[in-house]
Specification:
This is NUDIX domain-containing protein. InterPro entries: NUDIX_hydrolase-like_dom_sf (IPR015797), NUDIX_hydrolase_CS (IPR020084), NUDIX_hydrolase_dom (IPR000086), Nudix_N (IPR029401). It comes from Arcicella aquatica. By secondary structure, the protein is mainly β. Helices cover 14% and strands 37% of the residues. It contains two helices and nine strands, in the order ββββββαβββα. It has helices at residues 81-93, 150-160; strands at residues 15-19, 22-26, 36-37, 42-51, 54-60, 71-74, 96-108, 113-123, 132-138. The strands form two sheets. Strands 4, 5, 6, 7, 8 and 9 form a six-stranded mixed β-sheet that branches. The mean pLDDT is 95.
Length: 172
């Protein structure tokens, strides 16, 4: 996250100070302004997308070659996680989908996100959004889960199916 220098409410220079046992960025004018940047995690929805018997992994346009992961997106204000993931699958792959099962909740500390993961069954013809560069099809047992973020959801989902693949590390 980019560091904030000025209070978004009153414009004063922000300071770093311990509040509620954690270091926080806040406005020095606690009496009249009181702004505190709580840095709460952002909710993200993720889908293990099953399509025509395969699992679809996608590569974001900003990722290095060879990096593929689940379909993800930010939960929008006013929508449920279930609505959010069905919307993301439609936006990113142009597929209609139904939720098969809730997979779990996962922390992604590096991005300060809470990931809400589902197994989704989708139909239609895949058409990638401008956010995605390419996709690949894998059988459930062919996916090697990665150590962080949505890779933990893949690992748990596979384990429910008796699949215990080695976890891989992405190199940045």
């Amino acid at each position: 996250m980019a560091k904030m220098n000025f209070c978004p409410q009153c414009g004063k220079d922000l300071i770093t100070k311990v509040k509620d046992d954690r270091e926080r960025i806040l406005c020095p004018d606690e009496k009249d302004c009181g702004f505190v940047h709580w840095n709460t995690p952002t909710p993200v929805v993720a889908a293990i997308v099953e399509h025509e018997g395969d699992i679809i992994l996608a590569r974001n346009v900003a990722w290095p070659e060879g990096w593929f992961a689940l379909i993800t997106g930010f939960l929008e204000a006013g929508e449920t996680p279930e609505e959010g993931i069905l919307r993301e699958v439609k936006e990113e792959l142009n597929l209609d989908a139904e939720i098969v099962e809730f997979v779990g909740l996962y922390e992604f500390h590096r991005m300060n996100q809470l990931i809400i993961a589902y197994h989704i069954r989708a139909t239609g013809v895949i058409q990638l959004s401008e956010e995605l560069l390419e996709f690949q099809r894998k059988k459930d047992h062919e996916i090697l889960p990665w150590a962080a973020g949505t890779g933990k959801a893949v690992k748990d989902w596979q384990a429910k199916r008796g699949i215990f693949n080695e976890v891989i590390e992405f190199k940045r």
